[in-house]
Amino acid sequence: MQEALIYLQYQIQIEPGTDAADLLIAELSLLGIEGFEEGERQLTASGKKEETDAAAIELLLKNQGLTFTVAEVAQQNWNALWESSFEPVLIEDFAAVRAAFHAPVTTVLHELIITPKMSFGTGHHATTWLMVKEMSTLDFTGKSVFDFGTGTGVLAILAAKLGAIRVLGIDNDTWSIDNAIENVSVNKVEGIELQLADKVPVGHTYPIVLANINKHVIMAHLPAMKAITAPGGTWLLSGLLTVDEAEVKAAVEALGLQWQHTLQKDGWISMRFTDTGV
């Protein structure tokens, strides 16, 4: 039986969407926090206990004069907490992300049935919403897709529904891969391969590369991502804050990709690039 991970969950009193909140998220990301949820005048920040610098986080929050609480949360508690509050998410009239216990959503082109457990990607987070929105404008028919940091598998599943013939999704978290495998089965899609990995695999090129992780992981793997990108291929990047845009844009363009545009939602952004073949 898989041992449950312990997460540190911080409830921080701060107005979401402000410059101060965006900067705080960026700073917490450097200290092991990997999940953020914005509420009414509150930010919930979570990270694996063994990977989180709790002392540095406490010092940061106290130095900024922020009121906060911290609690240890077992990973297996996530399902009950999530099911009690999760509502279907609509990405315009293009897609809906819902759980299996929700009624079907008939007003959209694509339904994605996702049970997240402790994996990232339900459509509730702005970055997932932005990635799905961007994917609605791309032609996936007959193409291979690489999904870096697949989480729940939501983007890989959508790519398959949009006509991709092969999708490789990787994640460095065993629970995420197990969760994604379950979600792929529930959505009855084919052509998706899921791997437990923390490095971009070589040996195949992809016309479409998806990466919804965070700035630091993306920046560290840019050359590897470039190496697996087919000539003329497209990148969709997210897990990025508005303050990250200039740095990421410069680094990606230095590799020979051309910036197309940036979308924004709730202080988060997605960025689209096209390979120029350089």
UniProtKB/TrEMBL annotation:
It is found in: Cytoplasm. GO terms for biological process: methylation. Its EC number is 2.1.1.-. InterPro entries: Ribosomal_L11_MeTrfase_PrmA, Ribosomal_PrmA_MeTrfase, SAM-dependent_MTases_sf. Keywords: Cytoplasm, Methyltransferase, Ribonucleoprotein, Ribosomal protein, S-adenosyl-L-methionine, Transferase. It is an enzyme of class 2 (transferase). Belongs to the methyltransferase superfamily. PrmA family. Methylates ribosomal protein L11. This is Ribosomal protein L11 methyltransferase. The lineage of its organism: Bacteria, Pseudomonadati, Bacteroidota, Chitinophagia, Chitinophagales. The gene is prmA.
